[in-house]
Amino acid sequence: MPTTTETTILRGGEWLIQTSDAEVVFTPERTTDEHRLIARTTQDFVDNEVLPNLDRLEEKDWALARDLVKRGGDLGLLGVDVPEAYGGVGLDKVTSLVVSEKMARSASFGATFGAQANLTVVPIVLFGTEAQKQKYLPGLLSGDIVGAYGLSESGSGSDALGARTRATRQPDGSFLLNGEKMWITNGGFADLFVVFAKVDGDQFTALLVERGYGVKSGKEEHKMGLHGSSTTALIFQDVKVPAENVLGEVGKGHKVAFNVLNFARFKLGAMCGGGAQGAIAESAKYAATRRQFGQPIASFGAIKHKLGEMVVRTYAIESLLYRTAGLVDARIAATPHEATDGSAALAAFEEYAVEASIAKVAGSEALNYVLDENIQIHGGNGYVRDYPAERHYRDARVNRIFEGTNEINRLLIPGMLIRRALKGDLPLIPAAKALQDELLGPPSMPAAGDDEGVLTDERRAVDAFKKVALMVFGLAMQTYGQKLTDEQEVLMHLADITIEVYSAESATLRAQAAARGKTARAALQADAARVYVNDAAMRIDASARQALAAMVDGDSLRTMLAALRRVLKVTPVNTVAARRRLADETVEREGYPFGT
Ligand SMILES: Cc1cc2nc3c(=O)[nH]c(=O)nc-3n(C[C@H](O)[C@H](O)[C@H](O)COP(=O)(O)OP(=O)(O)OC[C@H]3O[C@@H](n4cnc5c(N)ncnc54)[C@H](O)[C@@H]3O)c2cc1C
After folding, report:
1. Does residue 30 have its Cβ closer than 6 Å to ligand 1?
2. H helices of 89-206, where?
3. What is the pTM of this model?
4. Which has the least CB within 10 A, 170, 501, 535, 571?
């Protein structure tokens, strides 16, 4: 496989058919003092101003929520993605990632903040006219105006383009808005809404709608979690929206909706990664102090296994998030553009839409795993409200549902890759053909992989994972052609394999970079990467076997399974010892041992 060099920036999904050098991959260890300062500012804000007020937020004190949004504005946190010309701080996407990670310590306020910074500010920055930016951004960035994003309806959640809200054009060019949106974050108290409606029956369009135009909120939903964030319906009855409030173009609302979601999914993944780190700290502290049978429960192997695995999964998520942010920043930097021009960022998020979906799916599922084990480590105390573990668990469940359900995102991952392959943008088909030839030929020597000796076996394993992915992609495209979209179960397996490839490679490259740079705790990073790769091999094997057996049978299946065994030869490592080392360090440090 070709290897990327420092001068090339991988295109979206290209890692599936290329190997990368550890030197070119962005990692948390490569963050700057500025990134770390913003991380600290965000964390202090959440620890000192949000968390002590969580009970009031959960009692729906929306005046307080508004004050906290304003405080976020004072600290510049709402303007990270906004050019300085519009009052923002215009920082890179690694900074956006860092802010989202640290904001995660309060999931409820994180949702309020995200609806403002990611779902209202970003669409205006990317699609707004100069006049719209001048009119709305200053208030949104200071927190004087609170925003919300109205896409979902009772009848159209995943099928967002099926919205029934109507905007009827009036003779003066304005629109009359009628319909109802559902489950809108900040719905109870927001002042400005990005609303998606069909203009004149069928032209899906984004509109900027002020509450003062006549928007009504429904009652607060009784939710499983996120009790400290407002979620309501929005009701529009003959709401008059001026002609100049179209965001983007009439009939091009899907561009706004999907591009905003690309970025928002990535940030949701970041929040999940940050949430997992916080929960690991809670588990570590509890396990160190809770004594049973005369010793701290942290000394039991079963608990060490949990702590170790919580760290391993979080490490993989964190690695892929920073790698993706690095790719996005590199692409934006390589695209000539004016500071006020959002088109470079827009193109970059479109380019890395697959990676954003992976971040969302893998992040939300790793977080669910970590929070479930956090409760288990807390035992009975995990199930009662005296400890935060049960609240985190309830709060996090929605991450697998909103910003595109994990099923929809899983469909998107192989769907987007195949579309790019068919357009010739991603040489997936020639790579799958070359692999087929290789598998039919005599056994080749194992690829040299990296020559440095650190994690060489894991690099080889990741190369093997990519071959399995190509094998299953190739067979699926060959077997079903255009009808592959009807084979959702196979697509889900393909998504799972793809997610494992990106996670395993990102973790391995980061650990390798740490080893080369002699970073503190590099040996522990290697442990985390080794355990991840070891288990990913088993998960990939299971997904591939099921996908293959769904597509072929008899001798063909036997041949494919033999090829799978030949490709996926991964010698198990001692994961017990590695997880114990990770758990011991986590307890010793009272928290996640890596990260910013
Ligand atoms: C707390 C909360 C806050 C929210 N905030 C906002 C907000 O601020 N703005 C906003 O616009 N929306 C918001 N939402 C709505 C959210 O985005 C939707 O709930 C989500 O998109 C899923 O839509 P749905 O609930 O209609 O589920 P459905 O689309 O009905 O899905 C139900 C199930 O069917 C599956 N499914 C659906 N279609 C397919 C398919 N084609 N193939 C396979 N499986 C499929 C789904 O994956 C899911 O498992 C919020 C929701 C919640 C709970």
Report:
1. no
2. 93-103, 107-116, 122-127, 130-142
3. 0.96
4. 571
